User: Fold this.
Amino acid sequence: MRVTLFIPCFIDSLYPQVGVAIVKILERLGHEVDYPEAQVCCGQPPFNSGYWDEARVVAERQLAVFRDAEVVVSASGSCGAMFKVFYGELFKDRPQQAEAKALGAKTFEFSEFLVNKLGVRDVGARFEGKVTFHDGCHGLRELGTKAAPRELLRAVKGLELIEMGEAESCCGFGGMFAVKFPQISTAMAEVKCNSIIDTGVETIVSNDSSCLMQIQGYINRHSPRVIKSLHLAEVLAQQ
Assistant:
């Protein structure tokens, strides 16, 4: 299969190793990977802030860039939800509505693509240590992604998955939310990170690097021990 990657801007700028890890895994499974360099932001920041006209400008660019893709795989549940769910709202009753629907239908979050589209659970990974998994809000609530990343983690040799009590609680990031409401954002991060610390794990894993950025920032300042954060793809790429 020819897989077209959608790499969100914050991963491209801050966590490029996540995109590299996804390429390694897909190529290990025998697929051809395409990365359109013309891709831009999905438009979620202005969309969430109420600037829908501005969001449509960048979203229209994305519709054109990914028009001919066979299947689109997103490195983020949050940005993947923008393609799969919110473009439908953004272009409702507009000329681009059918194209937005078509893009959503062929877009998959990374773990959902492996498990539900390809039927793959064991990618031949090895990772020694105890980990816990954080469910990002958009991936969980908009895309329904819950079982897939856990199935993949349980197949990793040497890895012990320990569920935290607050796995489904928001980390408090939410993009502009953390900027507009820093005190609430920090309080939410405290609940999430205390739950992580209580598990005794060495690593926190998620499908969203944006959530991990928020979590790691709080952990670095308040955890009594070192806990590192990794995107699911970074774990699965290791052998």
Remarks:
- The chain has a mean pLDDT of 96.
